[in-house]
Amino acid sequence: MGLFRRQPTQEPTPIDGVDCLYLDLDGVVYQGPDAIPHAVDSIRSTGVRSIYLTNNASRTDAEVAAHLSSFGLDVQPDDVVTSPQAAMRLLAEHLGPGDPVLVVGGAGIVVEVEARGWQVVRTAAEQPKAVVQGFHPSVGWKELAEASFALQAGRTGSGIPWIATNGDWTIPVAGGIAPGNGTLVSAVHTAVGRLAEFAGKPERHMYDVATERFGAQTPAMVGDRLDTDILGARRAGIRSIMVLTGIDRGASLIGADESMRPDHVLEDLRGLTQPIAPLRETLETSTGDTYFEVGAAAVRRSGIDITLVRAGARPVDTIRAACAAVWTADRPVLGLRIADELLAL
Q: Measured on CA atoms in the order 266, 270, 276, 280, is the torsion positive or negative?
């Protein structure tokens, strides 16, 4: 598939100059089995090649591509980069041909392990040379216990590597927010007293896989989580775009650490091709107060107090104004008093 470049517009959009979009899936393109409203049409309209990066290790790239294709998107398995694929890069540093690998997870990991000629095992008694752990709805106590047994044996023997596909504490599903792989990895960590090495976002490995595979020069990452998608993009040195359809919302953004602050914040994926509403900052010299406005939204910073003056027509405008007030302050967020109505966004 060739790269398509958008025609320049008079007013800048979040994807001007971007030659490849890296899109997270859960909370960005779909939630559970269903596409998020406006996501599919918005992706089609960008005119930029779309690549899908997912920390969810429960499915293969082919299964993910089929799911996306069912919405009418033109997606091939090679357009999907999974956290198990990133994990294989780390495992390759430790394993030889045919080595046994204890897999905690489903087909998303199994297919990648077998494709590289390693042997999938499920018990510590099979003497694995490494443990790789990823999310799957079927993972239970028995699988976590076998990983713990193998890693405990490794501590006194070969010290076998433990690769976790990702550390997401939660995962958005059709019924709501559920425990993610990070929660399951933490259970094993508690049992064995050692830390896993993580392959997925926010580590750079997935971004490196995508860049090597597609040769993107100016990609942008679109995600719904500050601690994975946005932090990972910042670490990889690429543009980051936050969309408010998944895990993190207004309060998380307003209080975000500097390392997790996105370049752009959108209500949903329609904002990718819409002009960026300008931010206006005004200092009132008589009081020393500073006003931050986006659209009709206005937020005031007066000393350590951050207050809502006027809500915008869209919540995202109010959130952007509040973020500007907090992020440009001369003290950390914990040193500010932020109005409750802003933290409720």
A: negative
